[in-house]
Amino acid sequence: MITPARQRPRSGRTRRIALAVGLAGLMAGFVAVTSGPASAAEVLVSQGKAATASSTEAAGAYLASEAVDGNNGTRWASAYSATQWFQVDLGASTAVSRIAINWEAAYARAFTIQFSTNNSTWTQAYATTTGAGGQQSITVSGTARYVRINLTQRALEAYGYSFWEFQVYSGNGDTPPDGTTRLLSYGKPALASTWQNDVNCNPCSPDKAFDNDPASRWATSSTNGWVDPGWISVDLGATAQISQVVLQWDPAYARSYQLQVSPDNVNWTTFYSTTTGDGLKDVVNATGTGRYVRMYGTARSSAYGYSLWEFSVYGTGGNPTAPPARPADPTFPATRLVFSDEFNGAAGSKPDTAKWTYDPGVPQNGEIQYYTPNSENASMNGQGSLVIEARRQDYQGRQYTSHRMNTGNKFSVQYGRIEARVKVPKGNGLWPAFWLMGDDFLQGRPWPYNGEIDIMEVLGRNTSEAYSTLHAPAYNGAGGYGQKYATVDLSQDFHVWAAEWDSKGIRFFLDGRLVFDAAKETVENTRGPWIYDHKFYLILNLAVGGDFPGPIDATTPFPSQMLVDYVRVYQ
Questions:
Q1: pTM of the model
Q2: Same domain for 341 and 407?
Q3: Model confidence band, residue 311 (pLDDT cutoffs 50, 70, 90)
């Protein structure tokens, strides 16, 4: 639903490369590795342990033990007052790395997390006054036998606090590629031969390749960096044994490059090289030892320079920093309802502003309507549906009106099943949609770097087809990664569109039928970075005209209505 962006064309295929290097000869003279055994992945240490709480909502129900039982269908709930606490005894002093909380609707805006080894002396590990509920993952550090959450401000003043699960983890916050090694390069100091900082890439500094953010990138300077050689390096903080390097290339990739290691950032030794690089994603399984790792490009693929979205180094040793932990993947079918609007209001009532933000204004994409907050463009029909209505109406200099609304700053989600039951209108130029935007857009990150997930788009000129599409920096607008699928005439009845989304990809459904499977690995290997591992908010709208649906004409009916029976999100 956003204006297409101009891109350079690209082609290529992903390569997974294995290479064993004889360290005795190649690495002679390097500092010996002194790191201990490989780090283990994180482990859930709270499940089934003894839990206590300041209160329960009802005698004999919603017990503290139900928040550590591993069952997302049971929960702890407190009495209806502002000051409460919940505590779990891990049974022994444990190095704690992460707390995961699956909140019920009665979540806390303000709370602290404390650690203790003796249940009497406490240290604070985390504090917030802006809790947003949902599925929360909190990176912490410290040793504790007892972990306590002190709750001080309620989101719903009429209730207390409640969560389905309170999980304490020990170990690494990152997920190793093979279960024994870990990401060494996240957040580490970086250098490059040059870097770009202009209107087209601002800034594309070397640190952007090591920030674990696949929507930011490093690029060589457009003024003096479109030459050979070009390079980027990272300081791992201490000597490391490298076992794998993953390069996610921008279209400005290297035909020929070397991966090199160094003990001092001066003297470099090559542990992998190729002259047949083809861009996109290179997974290089090769071994080397050193503190510094460098990609040294010697032949560009085009007239441009070199650019990487991500440069990830895996292995043991070094001085790694764990990236922020992601929430656990849902188990599908997901059954825990975390957001819903059934639109059961009285006829003429407007959408609930506790759940939805009206989004008035002039649209993008060449559309001709003005989005208004007025009830004639969005209201309940008294029969269980929201009516979004496009009208022929003079308003703010436009001759047509409609409505757009979203859950921005009120509800956002990372992973789960997102679905809506919708009846779409028929008519040339009409464009109903149900979609998601990365919520960093609300903090100023421009589209398409925030990401867009279009669960449903239908063009009124042919309501026997629908579209589901992903948009990202490397594939957007008319070049988005998506699927058009034929179906029945969707304007004749309600239909359920859904997306089931986890860290492995997003699967799109129409009336329970899989219509498009966007697998993360496939996208990275064929189109570009996967940028959907963060929170998104929901959007409903009905556009009129524009680049995608084409113009209205004399046959287009006004008013035209998009009916929404419900919107639901499960985890």
A1: 0.73
A2: yes
A3: very high
Q: Looking at residue 403, which CATH number applies to its domain?
A: 2.60.120.200
Whether 457 sits among the annotated catalytic residues: the reply is: yes
Reply yes or no on whether the pLDDT at 442 is more than 90. yes
| Domain-ending residue, one of 268, 283, 317 | 317
Give the range among 25-29, 308-312, 415-419, 452-456 with minimum mean pLDDT.
Answer: 25-29
Q: Which of 389, 419, 457, 524 is catalytic?
A: 457
CA 368/CA 361 separation, integer angstroms: 11
**529, 105, 460: which is closest to 311 by C-alpha?**
529
At residue 167's C-alpha, the angle toward residues 162 and 171, to 5°, is 160
What does the DSSP 8-state code read for residue 23?
H
How many separate domains does the chain show? 3
**98 or 386, which is more confident:** 386
Asked whether residue 10 is assigned to any structural domain, the reply reads no
HSE-up (13 A, CA, CB side) for residue 228:
14
Our answer to whether residue 157 is catalytic in this structure is no
Say if residues 176 and 313 touch (Cβ distance below 8 Å): no
Domain of residue 542: give its range: 337-570
Question: What is each CA distance from 202 to 199, 280, 310, 439, 483, in whole angstroms?
Answer: 6, 22, 16, 20, 32
Q: Could you tell me if 166 and 96 are in contact, meaning their C-beta atoms sit under 8 angstroms apart?
A: no
Please indicate, yes or no, whether residues 549 and 462 belong to a single structural domain of this protein.
yes
Contact by Cβ (8 Å): 153, 107: no
The pLDDT-based confidence of 136 (bands split at 50, 70, 90) is confident
Q: 452, 465, 500, 521: which one is catalytic?
A: 452
Residue 253 placed within a domain: yes
Triad 154, 100, 472: Cα angle to 5°: 100
Residue 539 covered by a domain: yes
- Pair 388, 541: CB distance under 8 Å: yes
Q: What is the CATH number of the domain that holds 267?
A: 2.60.120.260
- Reported as a single tens digit per residue, the pLDDT across 246-276 is 999 999 999 999 999 999 999 999 999 999 9
